[in-house]
């Protein structure tokens, strides 16, 4: 049995916040704003897994009204999503994610992002794809107002 999930996550950029993507702290003058660390990449991956399992979205599991999630590492949320996936009898087939950000360059960080995601999902790094694209000066991404990430995942029933 196979299940497919897809997700998108969007956060605005804000001065005074660290930029965390894929669990990597990236040097930049602004960070993503949100209740947790606002890691759009990890949020999209987690929501794609939850979607494949028909278990709702991140807000249903980790409400932004709960102070215990204030500033939490999104990798910790993804580890909990991994536990839900295993409890439901599935494992990662593959994950394909894209970050949309005008700046900074993502290429130097993608290998570490893939490692972090593979570790949180307890799977081989070859099952995790992370890519990046720019907004080409178009829309909120191009104007550097925010960043977004898209993800699709395939889950396989555990044997």
From TrEMBL:
It is an enzyme of class 4 (lyase). Keywords: Lyase. The keyword Lyase applies. Its EC number is 4.6.1.12. It comes from the Bacteria. This is 2-C-methyl-D-erythritol 2,4-cyclodiphosphate synthase.
């Amino acid at each position: 049995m196979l299940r497919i999930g897809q997700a998108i996550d969007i956060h605005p950029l804000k001065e005074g916040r660290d930029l965390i993507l894929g669990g990597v702290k990236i040097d930049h003058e602004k960070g993503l704003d949100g209740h947790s660390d606002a890691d759009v990449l990890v949020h999209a991956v987690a929501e794609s897994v939850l979607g494949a399992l028909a278990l709702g979205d991140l807000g249903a599991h980790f409400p932004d009204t709960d102070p215990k999630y204030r500033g939490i590492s999104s990798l910790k949320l993804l580890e909990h999503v991994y536990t839900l996936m295993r409890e439901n009898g599935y494992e990662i087939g593959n994950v394909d994610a894209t970050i949309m950000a005008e700046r900074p360059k993502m290429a130097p960080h993608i290998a570490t992002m893939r490692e972090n995601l593979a570790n949180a999902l307890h799977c081989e790094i070859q099952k995790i794809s992370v890519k990046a694209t720019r907004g080409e000066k178009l829309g909120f991404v191009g104007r550097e107002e925010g960043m977004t990430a898209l993800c699709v995942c395939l889950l396989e029933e555990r044997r």
